[in-house]
Design brief:
It is a single chain. By secondary structure, the chain is an alpha/beta fold. It folds into two domains: about 40 residues; about 270 residues, 3-Layer(aba) Sandwich (Rossmann fold), CATH 3.40.50.620. It is about 40% helix and about 10% strand. The strands form two sheets. It has a six-stranded mixed beta sheet with strand order 5-4-3-6-8-7, sandwiched between helices. It has a two-stranded antiparallel sheet with strand order 1-2. It is globular. Bound molecules: zinc ion. The site of zinc ion has 8 residues, from helix 12.
Length: about 375
């Protein structure tokens, strides 16, 4: 039997170009490799309309931060934007924006996470951008986090010649160990990661952050945040443009399913697949104690997008219709996650002791860090 017979996909002729064999089905529309790749790149770049060369002033580079976990979505976003910048140079001789790539090294808390060597491989493939790697523990140096720890008397060990990195790490571990449940720990860790990225982008005077979240990831976040008590923040969670953190957010991959992004990574030339850091395996629920709401939602949407992709897209489209409340400069925000406290009941029964000011935490964070309650 010959072994080199091309894989028969059974999808027939490409509905776009009518010539090639289709390899992927996009919302019931068979597409060949070339048309599929064009479709993905167009979807991502369409969301970058504001950053075309015609909106940039010569001599004033607009800087965008791309947080790169080296997972498939952030890597595909980097690939698409890199291609967009190359096209801009070809067409106009200049670019509409510059990319700052930030990788947060999570190995201190997620030992199986991507290493510095993996980031080096990405740098070699996309050498024209600026790269920075910082450990997650350095979030302990962010002013808000220091204030919060001081305010709630969480001991931060004094630097004892061990170097700031060791101190930061000890401090992060102390904080995470004080959190009672797996869901709350995962929640706080993702908030700290988010904080570190936003803090870096602002310190580096980036105009906006471009996130790699797929529509599947946004749907996961929508339901997970609702379950964790931050339903009040959904409108901000999925909208392009101003965020409550004082910097604009964009989600160029928001119209693409995770499975489409995965497929795209295998079709680029050369494929992106060898660069992608493996994702943590889906949670197998052995006990409720160790499973997290985030993990549960990931499992759920992973299964749903296989057969019912429109449900996934619908969750995000529906949420995107919510109107984000206006936030003024003087409005209070949650000390941990940074979301505005406009709609949040801060005085849960029994939480506010006589004469004490209520803790400036949102409802979701009050749930995650009960030790911060007075
Ligand atoms: Zn909060």
């Amino acid at each position: 039997m010959p072994t080199s017979v091309p894989k028969e996909t059974g999808l027939g002729v490409c509905k776009q170009c009518q010539t090639n064999d289709a390899v992927e089905n996009v919302r019931s529309r068979p597409m060949c490799r070339d048309c599929f790749c064009k479709y993905i790149a167009t979807k991502a770049v369409k969301r970058m309309e504001k950053f075309r060369t015609r909106f940039s002033t010569a001599g004033q580079q607009r800087s965008l931060l791309l947080p790169l976990s080296i997972g498939v979505s952030s890597l595909v976003l980097l690939h698409c934007l890199d291609e967009q910048l190359k096209r801009q140079i070809e067409n106009t001789g200049r670019t509409g924006f510059a990319l700052q790539i930030l990788h947060v090294d999570m190995t201190a808390v997620v030992p199986e996470g991507p290493s510095a060597t993996q980031l080096d491989v990405v740098k070699e493939r996309y050498p024209t951008h600026t790269y920075t790697s910082i450990p997650i523990s350095s979030v302990m140096e962010v002013e808000d986090v220091q204030d919060l720890l001081k305010q709630y008397g969480i001991d931060t060990p004094a630097p004892l010649g061990d170097g700031i990195e060791t101190t930061n790490l000890q401090c992060l571990q102390t904080l995470l160990q004080a959190i009672p449940t797996a869901t709350a720990r995962a929640d706080v860790l993702s908030i700290l990661l988010h904080k570190l990225i936003v803090d870096f982008a602002k310190a580096d005077t980036c105009e906006a952050i471009v996130w790699g979240d797929s529509t599947t990831r946004l749907a996961e976040k929508t339901l997970a945040e609702t379950a964790k008590g931050r339903g009040f923040a959904l409108a901000w969670l999925v909208s392009d443009g101003p965020s409550p953190y004082g910097i604009d957010f964009y989600y160029p991959m928001r119209d693409l399913l995770k499975k489409e992004i995965n497929a795209y990574a295998t079709y680029t030339n050369p494929p992106l697949t060898p660069l992608i850091a493996p994702e943590p395996p889906l949670e197998t629920v052995v006990s409720a104690k160790h499973s997290t709401i985030d993990g549960l939602m990931r499992n759920y949407f992973d299964a749903v997008e296989k057969n019912y992709p429109s449900i996934v897209a619908n969750v995000v489209r529906t949420t995107a219709k919510l109107q984000a409340p206006g936030v003024g400069a003087g409005d209070a925000s949650c000390s941990l996650c940074g979301l505005p406290l406009l709609l949040t009941p801060r005085t849960e029964q029994g939480l506010v002791a006589e004469g004490k000011a209520p803790p400036p935490l949102c409802y979701g964070c009050l749930r995650s860090v009960p030790m911060f309650s007075p």
